[in-house]
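FAQ: What does a ligand-bound record look like?

Like this one, built around PRP:
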Amino acid sequence: MENVFLMEHPLIQHKISMLRDKATGTNEFRKLVEEIAVLMGYEALRDLPMEEVEVETPLEVCKTPMIAGRKLAIVPVLRAGLGMVNGLLTLVPSAKVGHIGLYRDHETHEPHEYYCKLPDPIEERLVVVLDPMLATGGSAKAAVDFIKEKGGKNIKFMCVIAAPEGIERLHKAHPDIQIYCGHLDRCLNKDAYICPGLGDAGDRIFGTK
Ligand code: PRP
Ligand code: URA
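The answer part, i.e. the structure of the complex:
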């Protein structure tokens, strides 16, 4: 599928397997999510625009490539997306961070917005949306809808685990955005949880339940 990128790196797969284990506690879970975000971010940002700048080495002046501009916006979907933010900031410390608050209704599984604050000017930035779980795709679709309504044009979405239903819904609604997925799981269950999945990502990151 064009614009959908499944991660294959052994380090990412290994860490995702550790995340799935119900014996993995909050502290380790949080660290793993951050590490996976670093590894996935490295892949997802490989097409960042570059420019040649002049640098004086101890030997001579040379033209050498650096990332062009400082126009990256990282936008976690609350709550669970917060767990991936520091991973991306490790790679691009100067990035601005927006937030979109969404929760899934327990009955309908449809997303409800409760917060949205994005860095200005959003239309000039590459926006990287973070959410570890892409289940029905409702939350991711709504998050990208908001960003586009506010002017965002250049958007990537990163998730650790996706269900086929989520990838299909997000890709169908927004075929122009790149979707980076750590692992594609089997299916959703009747409560719209990803199987085998890792359970409730927000609860596991923040130690709630
Ligand atoms: C989870 C997850 C996603 C959403 C995915 O959030 O972090 O945002 O579900 O499901 P979907 O693809 O079916 O929309 P949740 O609603 O549980 O909120 P939380 O992060 O605050 O726990
Ligand atoms: N949200 C989660 O945190 N986990 C799932 O499996 C589905 C949605």
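Follow-up question: can I read anything off the structure? Yes, for example: Residues 80, 133, 135, 193-194, 197, 200-202 surround uracil (ligand 2) (CB under 6 Å).
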